[in-house]
Design goal:
The chain is α/β, with parallel strands linked by helices. It contains 7 helices and 10 strands. The radius of gyration is 19 Å and the shape is globular. It binds adenosine-5'-triphosphate and magnesium ion.
Length: about 240
């Protein structure tokens, strides 16, 4: 088992109503006692209306946030036992992220952006290996001709493909993508969807995609719908 959520809940305080001093602030339970298992070969979509908690759920799986109750178990470790530093180290090694916006740093070339998550202090042989890995991934992503360029010289679609390469650079076992095609037109979205599936498969990483695109969701082996705090299998 790669990752497991066991009876996970998460609530947020709603903002205070302006001018209504002293009013009790309602708590919104975004995730209500959710359990989910993720295995090595999974490709999974999480769908549901805007505001249903899809990003909240993905952030818990990715250890970017902690639940109020329940356990997030990554590769056999209960993450509630880990310090913030230990959790960051586990995340860096084990999980790759792709977001709706590529978040490449404008002042760095594509290759330098991609190599940024490679831990500082990596020995020269490992650094060379990471660079070779990046070049091989650029080739597969169809952006090998662009690796020395800065992000502003690439299209949004090309930048998003570079973001997928960055997510894979540390050879993660699990890739989490939150609306990875949300900023792309239909043609580029199709290319990116193909690439995400192909590269995660070749790199032996499981893939979880949060998406509003039924086309992208339908290409995953499993589909879950989030609504009213609960996760329901649609295709399993
Ligand atoms: N840090 C936060 N503080 C307070 N409320 C939050 C916070 N993050 C999310 N929420 C609330 O929790 C709910 C779920 O948010 P979330 O971003 O997980 O939804 P989503 O399903 O990803 O929506 P979308 O499809 O629009 O991205 C929303 O009502 C949101 O306003
Ligand atoms: Mg979201």
């Amino acid at each position: 088992m790669l990752a497991e959520l066991s009876n996970v809940s998460k609530s947020y305080l709603q903002d205070k109503v302006p001018g209504k001093k002293g009013e009790v602030i309602p708590v919104v339970r975004v995730l209500d006692n959710i359990s989910l298992s993720i295995v090595e070969t999974d490709t999974m979509a999480i769908v549901g209306p805007s505001g249903s908690g899809k990003s909240t759920l993905l952030n818990l799986i990715g250890c970017l946030d902690r639940p109020d109750a329940g356990q997030v178990i990554i590769n056999g470790s209960d993450t509630s036992d880990l310090s913030d530093n230990a959790l960051s180290a586990l995340r860096n090694r084990f999980i790759g992220f792709v977001f709706q916006m590529h978040h490449l740093l404008p002042q760095l070339s594509i290759i330098d952006n991609v190599l940024l998550p490679v831990l500082p202090g990596t020995d020269p042989a490992a650094a060379r290996d990471a660079r070779d890995h990046a070049m091989a991934l650029f080739e597969k992503a169809g952006i090998a001709g662009h690796y020395r360029k800065h992000p502003y010289r690439l299209s949004v679609g090309e930048c998003q493909r570079a973001a997928v390469v960055r997510a894979l650079i540390n050879r993660p076992r699990l890739v989490l993508a939150d609306e990875p095609t949300g900023s792309l037109d239909a043609a580029n979205a199709a290319v990116l969807g193909d690439m995400l599936l192909r590269l995660t498969d070749e790199e032996s990483a499981a893939l979880i995609v949060v998406t509003h695109s039924s086309e992208l969701a339908s290409r995953m082996d499993k589909i879950y719908r989030l609504g009213a705090g609960k996760l329901t299998p649609v295709k399993a």
